[in-house]
Fold this protein.
Amino acid sequence: MPLLVMKFGGTSVANIDRIRRAAKRVGVEVAKGYDVIVIVSAMAGRTNELVGWVNETSPMYDAREYDAVVSSGENVTAGLMALTLQEMDVPARSWQGWQVPLLTTSAHSAARIEEIPTDNINTKFAEGMKVAVVAGFQGISPEGRITTLGRGGSDTTAVAFAAAFEAERCDIYTDVDGVYTTDPRITDKARKLEKIAFEEMLELASLGAKVLQTRSVELAMRYNVRLRVLSSFEEQSDNAGTLVCAEEDIMESNVVNGIAYSRDEAKMTLISVADRPGIAAAIFSPLSEAGVNVDMIIQNISEEGRTDMTFSCPTDQVARAQKAMHAAKDSGEINFHDLVADTDVAKVSAVGIGMRSQSGVAAKMFETLRDEGINIKVIATSEIKISVLIDRKYMELAVQALHDAFGLDKAA
Ligand code: ADP
Ligand code: ASP
Ligand code: MG
């Protein structure tokens, strides 16, 4: 039997009525002759509520219990989806991560998928089950504890199942009808892309576009999964949405294809550290051990053997970063005058494969921000992206201005 993976995000299973609508879509594919693996998220808002309860109970929580709590939202929707399908006379069964079993590392709250044995589910398909409904976002560690894959992790569950079961396609149903040139909530000039290259999607996701979890794009690229993003609220059709595909499959493309933003960034500066061999290692090793995800780094000009070191990290990791740096200072590994945290910044990035062969993109980005009177605090570039840190209050304005400046409302 040909097999499809269909993933429904939080807004698509937000209540019983929406679960019914999603189930109808699954029914249409089953009627075409597909076996289907449905991956479900928790109902919209539920995971945030669960995270809130954990933080309220225990601010320095045990990550194993965090996962036990926050994974539970998906259990509810998996069972309800299976029941809804059964009510429609579609033979369906629900699976929690551990029942599959979806095997992961023990990195609680950010676990990586190691393996998905297909036997259990395939046996049920062979017995006549048409739909396996699997709770997204969760798995089981080698120690036998429940793990979660990081926020947005159901996307990764979906792509990993598509790879393991060699699905014909992996459809990600969400509240927008595809991948846009930027978040359509920030500007109504955002344009839906017919296709987007894996590399570009990977950059956009890792720079903050939450429409797909970064890891899901990595997996799709590695296993060549046909990945599609589409709306669960629009009419069903085989070529709806955006196809995430290999660069070679895209004929025309703009130099810049997307603008991403990340709201919750912090800029940390260590004032006056010794400029000597090993200083970067002495700073960034303890940060890494403390689980701080450092993104941009700048070492400023050195004067009389001392320099300032600036880095960015997510705002909710500032306390951890401060603790790690003060501990390193106390133990004599590093020395600095002060650690300044600017928590009112945001990151805005322009992404496009065309940057590899075209110069002038950075200049245009900086001129555009200058014309809006927006000060750039930190700059980072790679082959296909340019990112800047700016004051958070200008974030929307910067996204809109850059979207206009690069002509993203028009196709190539
Ligand atoms: P789900 O609950 O279905 O997983 P998410 O909220 O995780 O949905 O992701 C969908 C959201 O991603 C959209 O509502 C949109 O606001 C946001 N988004 C950010 N950047 C983009 C983009 N470039 N294209 C489409 N959506 C985007
Ligand atoms: N429910 C989880 C979250 O909100 C996983 C997901 O929906 O992808 O992050
Ligand atoms: Mg999501």
The two ends are 39 Å apart (CA to CA). The chain has twelve helices and 18 strands.
